[in-house]
Amino acid sequence: MFMRRFAGILTALLIAAPAAAQDAPARPAPEIIVRPPPSEAERHKQLREFTREVIRPPRMNQPVAKFAFPVCVTVLGLTLEDTAVIAERIRENAEALGVGVDRAPDCAPTVRVAFMAPAAGPAEGWLSSESPQLAHLAGYQRERVLGETGPVRAWHKVAVRDALGNAFRPQLGDQQRFPTYTEIQPLSTSDPLVTTEITGAAVLISREAANGFTLGQLADYATLRALLGTGPVEGDAPAPTILTLFADPAPPAGLTDFDKALVRELYDASYNASARRVYNDIARAAVAAERSDGRGNHAP
Fold this sequence. Notes:
Elements: H1 2-23, H2 40-54, E1 66-67, E2 73-76, H3 80-96, E3 111-116, H4 139-147, E4 152-162, H5 174-177, E5 194-206, H6 207-210, H7 215-227, H8 257-268, H9 275-292
Parallel strand pairs: 1-5, 2-3, 3-5
Antiparallel strand pairs: 4-5
Helix pairs in contact: 2-9, 3-7, 8-9
């Protein structure tokens, strides 16, 4: 009798369960938001702002600094074979991007890349405000170098000249080596009346942090850090760039279209072109490269 009654109750529950489920309100389907790709003007603005973040801003009324003469490259801290490969790749990049290379065996190095051994300790201890390597930098420039995080430290020596290329103060070596410096005329009244020339670049990279990357990736990263004043890219980048090498779990295999636009457009600009003009040219070239690659206006 008991078993018959229990079976009847169980049957009633099984019959009632689907009914209760049917009475429950149906969950709304997840909303799918489809956003159209940015227009060319929107993408240009996005990459222009990113360029302003990537390139360290020049001082007020000064153009973006760059090398005025072919660079002489030296790489230290790895095997002779590996340093030769990296140095040659940097030279090839500089030639392809319009910077120029001094290949004379006895040229004075203007781009120095060093891979720091573990014995040197963490990057935070490589340099201090009293380091002689940074003695030529202004206070704000030293703060940039010492404030950088990650396994790399990079800086430049910059000479400020007038619009005709004459140094405001004697620059050791350059005026003796190049006494007939090319005259530079302002493009417009909005351009600065001075030029800023990089006369030397140094890039220090932790050897331990470099493990796992190809020599090409390391050379391309060093190329960007040496040829223009930039720090590492933090957070999500709106365009692929080799500058994310030590932060991105899947970094680019080499220089990207955006990276090439950064260097090529800077070195193609007048020596006293305003920073705003340079940023616009870089963004324009990067958008055009995306369009020619078939990516259209789609952000990566």
